Amino acid sequence: AFSAIEPLFDDVVGRLEGRQTGYSIFGHSAGSQFVHRFLFFKPQARVIRYIAANAGWYTFADPDVAFPFGLDGLDIDDEALKNALAKDVVVLLGTKDTDRAARSLNKSDGAMKQGKHRFARGKAFYKAAQSLAAKKGWDFGWSLQTVNGVGHSNGKMAPKAARLVR
After folding, report:
1. Burial class (CB in 10 A: 0-12, 13-18, 19+), 153
2. pTM
3. What is the DSSP string of 107-150?
4. Confidence of residue 70 (pLDDT cuts 50, 70, 90)
5. Residue 93's beta-bridge partner residues?
6. pLDDT, tens only, 11-48
7. Conformation bin of residue 60: beta by default, left when phi > 0, alpha when psi is -120 to 50
8. What are phi and psi of 123, to 5 degrees?
């Protein structure tokens, strides 16, 4: 699926006879997991802004944690990681996405180490990336934004995401 995005973009631009050279990508929940992993797996993608909302769990920008919870075991070197941390990434979280008993919430040991619920996991994901960039002296282009009073609802997160599209 990661390899389908760039050709799809080219196809749409061609059909519309557009001049766009880049795009924003938004995903909620499992879509958010796709978006933040796309950042790592397709570093040459022409994404202007990544918007990852309310993921259930994350692949942290941590080369010492085994994939899928970190980057260990993947072919992602320091230069690629540095570039990923410098990109325009918005981690978008609903402040009420805190249901620990949600049926779709990943409750595996690896996910639970990230936090007890989606809101905590998203904050931990952002903070870990920010800390790594600071430790290495790298640019950090990510931001953390919240939508107050919203739980795990794409319908309530999407309006904020739409305003973030560049």
Report:
1. middle
2. 0.96
3. -SHHHHTT-SSHHHHHHHHHHHHHHHHHHHT-----EEEEETT-
4. very high
5. 146
6. 999 999 999 999 999 999 999 999 999 999 999 999 99
7. beta
8. -65, -40
